[in-house]
Write a structure and sequence with these properties.
- This protein has about 775 residues and is mainly beta.
- The strands form eight sheets. The chain has a 22-stranded antiparallel barrel. The protein has a four-stranded antiparallel sheet with strand order 3-2-5-6, with no helix packed on it.
- A hairpin with a 3-residue loop joins β15 and β16.
- The longest helix has 17 residues, at about 1-20.
- The termini are far apart.
- The model is unreliable at about 1-25 and about 515-520 (pLDDT under 50).
């Protein structure tokens, strides 16, 4: 009963307060905005109507390009519509008293990117996030050549790869070492990429299956303030959406140290052809094959990747659309892993060497996705999605070498075997106008089931020696939410919501073979547990003008824990609460510049985790992080753009004494920036840097994870249907550590107890890649 009361009370509160702002009914103006080339809806357009006294009324179109103005006084108005990447238009309209003007159908044509068209007040009214306009611009301007480049579109996000290129990257954001996704949620066309109770890491998010050329849109959410996203979204989340329509193309890439890639996209339905419907349809298939020897390592990585993706999108009627998608991904690699610093300084191996060259793995993922969306006469939207994924990972690593077993070594095998993922997402969006003010209400429900077998085994040279832990997993997350955005005045609006998550977790341990002497303990962790979590959110926005917006955000979130932790501790708080809060502004100090500033904080109740490398739970205690995000986008001249993101974070454990309360590997100062010359035909170029500061590698700050500064460049030349490109990574050819960890290891010549030291994976040297693309 209590859960039902919370969303209803929010709704009634909005209606009560809105009555103070009610006005007499006058004229009504509404319309729909579409792309002139595809006749598809353009979402989130900025619309303004200006009366004869120069008073301006504004609105933001919905996901289907619809806009609406109520209570307009009779008279003549100028209607203006604009959005990034399209040519703005202006036209006269007339409003009569108590009459509804005919619905306007407006077509916009593509145009060069111009920041003068951007109004920052429109950046949050349908997404609840101020980064929307920045993300749109970055998708157009920043070079995107890989799945890693897609992830780096998130302002302030850094990645680190520490095993052979095929494993999910380590993620850093807002003072979090989010491991492989524990505190950062990733979605691809609505399918969760993160995997709970994964064999290698909680929330493991491997995005390598995404083909970058097929990605159309990115929504970024910093913090835990977004109602429709739950598990793992503490530091933030990213939603990637694929293109509905795409041109035929073939792209070939070749580079230093054995890098090769070929990618192609082929439309399957000709222009004005139909399969299921008389309305517009599209279907295409995209595939890529890549090989990266990374032969600068003594033992080359031999990273092989193959991906294929197919999509059908069609309008079944004027108001109903259907999307059907399928993809398959497979990768294999070898890795040199993390090596102790002393192994290099003492001359045992070179910087590019390996102490256990058998590291590496193989993985594959298959996705199927169906989305049906219907719009009704009143503007409400009903969206249903069902998806299925099949996933496998067979990973071989060696972190401690001779510390546990001086005879066979400490190699481990982590296997996520035959994971089946079933899911459903449903949302119903209602747009109403109580008191003449816009109220957007979204109801949502979802269910996700993970089924599979997870195992940790001892191995030597990829030969299995013994089983440390193995079990069958069944984990289901059912969630429901209500989210409401109400515009109290022309300048002030509120987004509020509440989310409920329910978990049913079952883990059945399979009795392993006897554990060899000196290996990890092997307790029985079978069991069934249910857990629930309620997460309220509240975000306030005030538009000072069309070029200045202020906001305050707050919310409760969480990240779930491994099933083996939860069933072993059924009464413990294994879904610790994260409380996030921030205050900031997005504004345009000059005509062609956008600035976003956020002061943020996040309190995590307990950084409770499960170490899959040793099959043991780890309770690190509560933490607090305080920091600032700063982003700037500036159009210097028509084709020249500058962008910069700077993020500073101060994080500490709150239960530990001063000097022993550092959060290992938590980033402190990070920055990325670039200058881009963009030309649709002819010459284009981009010069960019990535910087991360030194940071503590242990809780006493006795070991330092060293920072780095990298400079990259991209040059392209487009002539009609051909595009020639060249990329230079790490222009200055600096020696840098991509991944770094404090690890107790034992190598040849060490005492039996081993030595606690910084271990690292070296970052790539200077790399030069060339590409040729043909569009047809």
């Amino acid at each position: 009963m209590k859960r039902k009361f919370i969303p209803e009370s929010i709704f009634l509160l909005f209606l009560l307060i809105s009555s103070f702002f009610a006005r007499a009914q006058n004229g009504l103006l509404k319309g729909s905005v579409k792309d002139s080339a595809t006749h598809e809806a353009i979402p989130f357009v900025f619309v303004a109507v200006i009366d004869s006294a120069s008073k301006q009324y504004t609105a933001i179109g919905d996901q289907l390009g619809n806009f609406r103005f109520a209570n307009l006084h009779p008279g003549k108005y100028a209607l203006q519509i604009s959005i990034l990447g399209y040519k703005p238009i202006a036209l006269p309209v007339a409003i009569n008293a108590n009459e509804q003007a005919p619905t306007l159908f407006i077509l916009l044509s593509h145009d060069a990117v111009s920041l003068s068209q951007v109004t920052v007040t429109g950046s949050t009214k349908n997404t609840g996030q101020n980064l929307n306009v920045i993300n749109q611009l970055d998708m157009v301007l920043r070079p995107i050549n890989s799945a890693q480049d897609l992830m780096r579109l998130v302002p302030g996000l850094f990645l680190a790869q520490h095993q052979g290129g095929g494993k999910a990257e380590q993620i850093f954001l807002r003072g979090f070492d989010a491991d492989h996704g524990t505190d950062f949620a990733v979605f691809w066309d609505g399918i969760p990429v993160n995997m709970p109770s994964h064999a290698h890491g909680q929330g493991y998010a491997d995005s390598h299956f995404m083909i970058p050329e097929t990605i159309d849109q990115l929504n970024v959410y910093k913090g835990d303030y977004t109602t429709h996203i739950g598990d793992f979204a503490t530091a933030g989340a990213a939603e990637f959406f694929t293109k509905d329509y795409i041109d035929n193309m073939v792209k070939v890439e070749y580079g230093d140290y054995g890098y090769n890639r070929i990618m192609g996209i082929l439309n399957l339905i000709g222009k004005d052809k139909h399969i299921f419907s008389k309305y517009k349809e599209s279907a295409y298939i995209s595939a890529e094959g890549a090989y990266n020897a990374a032969s600068y390592f003594v033992h080359p990585q031999d990273y092989k990747r193959f991906s294929v993706f197919g999509k059908y999108f069609g309008k079944l009627s004027e108001r109903t659309s259907l999307s059907i998608e399928g993809s398959y991904f497979n990768a294999s690699w070898s890795g040199s892993g993390q090596i102790p610093t002393r192994a290099v300084t003492e001359g045992l191996i070179t910087r590019w060497g390996a102490l256990d060259p058998s590291e590496g793995g193989i993985t594959d993922r298959t996705n199927a996705n169906v989305i049906l969306k219907t719009t009704y006469d009143d503007g409400s939207i009903f969206k249903n999605q069902v998806y299925y994924s099949y996933y496998q990972l067979n990973l071989f690593t060696d972190f401690t070498f001779l510390l546990v077993d001086s005879v066979h070594g400490d190699g481990i095998n982590q296997r996520d075997n035959g994971r089946n993922i079933f899911g459903y997402n449903g949302t119903y969006e209602i747009n109403s106008y109580p008191g003449g003010r816009h109220l957007q209400t979204v109801f949502g429900i979802s269910s996700k089931i993970d089924m599979g077998q997870i195992a940790l085994r001892q191995q030597e040279g990829r030969v299995i020696l013994d089983t440390v832990s193995m079990g069958n997993l069944y984990e289901q997350n059912v969630s429901a939410f209500v989210d409401e955005t109400y515009h109290f005045t022309d300048h002030f609006f509120v987004n509020a919501g509440v989310r409920a998550d329910y978990y049913y977790i079952q883990y059945e341990q399979i009795s392993p073979a006897p554990v060899l002497p000196g290996l990890f303990p092997n307790p029985d962790s079978s069991g069934t547990v249910t857990k629930a979590k309620i997460s309220p959110k509240l975000n306030l926005f005030y538009d000072v003008s069309h070029n200045v917006q202020l906001f305050i955000k707050g919310g409760y979130g969480f990240h779930s824990n491994d099933a083996r932790v939860i069933v072993s501790n059924p009464n413990a708080n294994t879904l610790p609460t994260a409380i996030g809060y921030e205050i900031g502004s997005i504004f345009k100090p000059v005509h062609d510049m956008i600035v976003n500033v956020e002061f943020f904080g996040l309190n995590l109740q307990n950084e409770y985790t499960y170490d899959q490398d040793v099959a043991q739970e780890v309770a690190n205690g509560s933490t607090i992080r305080l920091g600032i995000d700063f982003s700037i986008r500036y159009q210097i001249i028509k084709k020249l753009f500058f962008d910069m993101d700077v993020e500073y974070s101060h994080g500490r454990f709150t239960d530990s004494a001063a000097g022993h309360n550092y959060i290992p590997l938590a980033p402190t100062l990070t920055s990325v920036a670039g200058i881009t010359y963009r030309n649709p035909q002819g010459f284009s170029a981009s010069l960019r840097y990535r910087y991360i500061d030194n940071r503590p590698a242990d809780s006493q700050n006795e070991l330092t994870a060293y920072g780095y500064f990298l400079l990259d460049a991209v040059v392209k030349y487009r002539y009609k249907q051909y595009e020639l490109g060249m990329t230079v990574e790490n222009i200055l050819n600096v020696n840098w550590n991509e991944a770094q960890f404090e690890t107790l290891t034992r190598i040849l010549g060490d005492p039996p107890a081993g030595i606690n030291q910084l271990c690292f994976t070296p970052g790539a040297p200077r790399l030069i890649k060339g590409s040729l693309t043909y569009y047809f």
